[in-house]
Design a protein that fits this description.
This protein is an alpha/beta fold. The chain is built from nine helices and eleven strands. The strands form two sheets. Strands 1, 2, 3, 4, 7, 8, 9, 10 and 11 form a nine-stranded mixed beta sheet that branches. The protein has a two-stranded antiparallel sheet with strand order 5-6. Helix 1 crosses helix 2 and helix 7 crosses helix 8.
Amino acid sequence: DREQEHVITVSVVKFDGSLDSIGRAIDLCGGFDGLDPVHKVLIKPNITFSGWMPIPPYGMVTTSTVIEGILRRLAERGCRDVTIGEGSVAESLGSSTWRGFRYTGIDRVARRYGARLIDLNEGPFESRDLGDVKVGVSRAVAECDFLINVPVLKTHRQVKVSLALKNLKGCLAIPSRKRFHHKGLENLICLLNDAVHSDLTVIDGIYMLEKGADTLMGTAHRKDLLIAGRDAFLCDCVGATIMGI
C-alpha cells in the first residue's frame, strides 16, 4: 500500500514545422488532463511590443504557429469557450496589445478557430495581496477555468530568464507591473505564480533569444524546440537549462 510516487512530466519536442509537433508536446506531458470541453480556457502569449519598428519578432514574441497548434488541439478536444488575452507594454512608442495581435498574426489564427481576443490592460482587475504588496490581476485570468501560459524561450537582463513565471506579469494592471520593479521583481514574480496558477505551460522555443528581452538588445537563434508541462516552475527549469543557465 505504499503511496505511489507523484511524477510530473515536462516534454521537450522538436518542432518539425507542423502543428502536429505542438500537439505532441501537449500530449506527452498530459497537458490537457483535467480539461473539460465546457471549461473557459484562456491562452496567455507573450507579446512584449507590437511592431513599432520594422524588425522581425524572432525570439521576442510568441509565434502565431504555436498559438495555432494549441487552438487546433483545443478544437479537437471540443473546447469552444477559448480566449487569447495579453497585456503588452502599452506605453512604448505607440505599442498596444491590439497592434501586437496583428503584428504577430495571432489575430488571424484566432479568427480561424473562433477564439476571442482581449486586451488584459483594459481590465477589470481584482485586487490580490502578494505579501505586503497589493496588485491588480486581470479578472479574465482570475476567473478562467484553464490557463495556458505560452512564453518564449529567452533571456532577460534583469531576471536572467523570461519564461513562464515572468510571463504572468502581463496579467497585471500597468501600475502593478511598475510596482514590481520597485518592490522586489524576482520575489513578486514568485508570489504572483502562487496567486495565479498556470494549468499548462508551452514554451515557444522555435526561436531562442540570447541577451534579451527584445530584439533591440538580443540575438535570435533558430532552435525549433517546444517545452510543455503542467508545472510552470519545472518548465522554466528545463528552459533555463537548455539556455545554459
